[in-house]
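Team,

Forwarding the record for the chain on the shared tracking sheet. I've put the sequence and predicted structure together so nobody has to dig through attachments.
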Amino acid sequence: MSLEIKKSEMGAMMLKNMLKNNKMLYVTIIALVVYWGNIKGQTLPPQNEQFTGTLYFDDGLPIKSIQDSLALELCQIYGLDQGIRQMGLGGGKRDIKIDSVNFVKMLGIIEQYGFPCEKTLGEYFRGECVTMAAIAVMLHNPHRIVNDKKAFDLLLREVNRGNLSTKVLANFLDKYYFMKTLNTTRKVYYGSQWGKPCIEDRAVSDSLRREIGLPPLREEDFKICDKTNVVKPIKKHKK
């Protein structure tokens, strides 16, 4: 057996063990090292850039299995996404930059391999860092999904291919509208974990839901938007 094969199998074994034990702190640390070593100081890649990277061992030998490579890449992305939030290492523009880099990478992965799912990743699609990576990245970039037709169409393609649930896509999209109206009347249009649409927006909601393959909501799934739904801005106390 060649050294290359041995090292490939060793990498796969380490990944499986890491996912089995759900060692997220380990994943986070590895991802942060990758980030500060390879991303810091670089300009953001164009939004339409394709992910063409390949994971390698330290001595330059490539990881043979596509599933190994995808799972490792997803864990690194998820480690970055969660690490800056859980370990207090982000803040302001740095968070935005990391989220943007992760978004571009994830779009490339989806374009080439489809939205991460069990069909593509097999037994690897069990660990948190593999199953949640794409979802976390999309939830932290909802504005880019709504405002970038290419990103929206790519996710809609995955819905049509059965790799992404319509309800999950609706959740991505509703977060944008929810956050955009955070200090006014909280509005959503699709109906998701972010809340119910306003009955006054029923026509818009019906149209948007049909666009992604969801049926119109029932009347009881809407809310009446009046002054009681207005969220006032939080006032800072003066020292």
